[in-house]
Design a protein that fits this description.
Structural class: alpha+beta
Number of strands: 5
Shape: globular
Helix content: 55-70%
Distance between the termini: 65 Å
Length: 205
């Protein structure tokens, strides 16, 4: 148990370090490129106007850089997850039944870990969907993240034809709805909450 806690802590620290370095890189790029933008603006413009334009440009540059750096660091995050994964003891005399049991257990844990890593394309807060403990992996390679009674976020990274892992939200067994961003997920959950809210009828006396 102690070894598992240390490995999980190492994964969290490494993931946080990657996120911090990505943010630092994004801010540095925005600061570096803001100087020529400010110099290119006409001096006849008011200082407040130039500062506003530079600030807007810096925000766009920072967000774009953060996205690009995050995409490039996805393989590093996967490697970090493998390095900090719990090692399985080497056994010279495994029975077929034991091998099947170990493989099935590893497949479930692998699916949960892959879902948490792939969730970086969906959630970059590092506090919610990127937590492997929230995902329930299956032997097929898919994973599920329960979001409430009858509400589940599904991960499917088993199709090699997909450019990105597929996330979808299933509500009460209905047709899954594809989700690609947190605002989309929030909108679906908010809409569900409004539908489930009780209707108060006020009778006139």
């Amino acid at each position: 148990m102690k070894g598992n806690a240390l490995r999980h802590r190492a994964f969290r620290i490494g993931s946080a370090a990657l996120t911090l370095s990505t943010k630092i890189g994004a801010v540095s790029a925005a600061g570096f490129l803001s100087v020529p933008v400010f110099q290119a603006l006409p001096e006849s413009w008011a200082l407040s106007q130039r500062v506003f334009i530079v600030a807007a440009a810096a925000a766009v540059i920072s967000a774009k850089t953060y996205t690009v750096l995050g995409d490039y660091l996805v393989p590093v995050r996967r490697l970090l997850a493998r390095v900090t994964a719990r090692p399985q003891p080497c056994q010279d005399r495994l029975t077929l039944a034991e091998a099947i049991r170990l493989t099935a257990t590893a497949a479930k844990a692998d699916a949960a870990a892959r879902a948490a890593i792939a969730a970086f394309t969906l959630d970059r807060s590092d506090h919610f969907l990127r937590n492997p403990r929230g995902w329930h992996g299956s032997e097929s390679g898919e994973a599920a993240f329960p979001l409430g009674p009858g509400v589940t976020l599904h991960y499917d990274g088993t199709d090699p034809r997909l450019a990105q892992p597929q996330f979808s939200l299933t509500i009460l067994g209905k047709t899954p709805v594809a989700v690609s961003t947190l605002p989309e997920l929030l909108a679906l959950l908010t809409h569900l909450a409004h539908q489930a809210a009780p209707v108060v009828v006020v009778e006139r006396v």
